[in-house]
Amino acid sequence: MASAHARHLTIMADRNLRRLPLLALIGCAFVLTLTCAALAGVPSVRTVGMTVADADASAEFFERVLGFEVVSDHEVAGPAYEHLQAVFALRMRVVRMRLGSETVELTQYLAPSGRRFPEDARPNDLWFQHVAIVVSDMARAYAHLREHRVAHASSGPQRLPESLGTAAGIEAFYFRDPDGHFLEVIAYPPGKGDPRWQDESRLFLGIDHTAIVVADTEASLAFYRDGLGLRLDGESENHGSEQEHLSGVFGARVRITALRGESGPGIELLEYVSPGPGRARPTDARASDLLHWHVDLDSADLESAAASLRQMHAALDSPGIVDVDGTLGFARAISFADPDGHRLRFLESGSHAGANRSR
Q1: Which residues touch 228 (CB under 8 Å, ≥6 apart)?
Q2: What is the pTM of this model?
Q3: Per-residue pLDDT tens over the stretch 183-201
Q4: Which residues lie closer than 8 Å to 111 by C-beta, 6 or more apart?
């Protein structure tokens, strides 16, 4: 049995196969490997990023419609960034924006441009990811979004019923940004969520979490909790008319698992128990394509993080640890994928804070 598991992990180490959602084939050997490879300590989530077609247009949308502010704007190029992002001959413009204590990173590939966001994307597709932006008043937020003519992804705001227990009373609404990315506004009733989400002095408050669709919660927990060291922060299984109309998926029954780092937004796993997961991330997708998102984790010991990723047989986008020039606020990084193809990076801070515009 042990030798069979070893052979299986060797096969799964193949980069292309690791991008396919064949989690049922990994079995207990994958879980045990991740448990043994767990990082020391709980990492912090630094930021969540997405690839955009036009950084100016996207920054204007996040600023004018959602209340974010620009905190940095840089342009980078060169072999180090090509290796980190696995995109040859790139030139990237990276705009970081803040809302409350959290940031998002908008990356435009000036060269080479990637593919547009899939027009037929559905919220149960395995490339699905969004950020949940907390609002103090859902009715006001929805009216504000309607005034700015955002594209609906939900039929309207949904209030989750009392029958759902821990999720009861939460209000949420999915919508789309100018590129087609899914976004969410969410309002927490008193006593749920971070206490700062009860601040009524502003409409848009911050980012609570980023949500990703996964094919198998247990395999993803093995990766994120047992491997990367994130802590479990809550679980629920949402179903019924409200969940269907929120996600726009008929018959949706979603197992939701919340994970947290030492600080920063949470990472929420969404497993569509019904009707099941949709399409896998295309195997030829690149960071320059608009379906690309990434989550950045801080690392105080990048060598140990890289060794753990190798023990976990994680699929790497970068050839290993990459040294960069510090322009974007980190000096070294390694980029990798989770079992479903969602992209992450471990970052080691450098001397440049990246807090001022460079363009």
Answers
A1: 38, 39, 43, 297
A2: 0.87
A3: 999 999 999 999 999 999 9
A4: 89, 90, 91
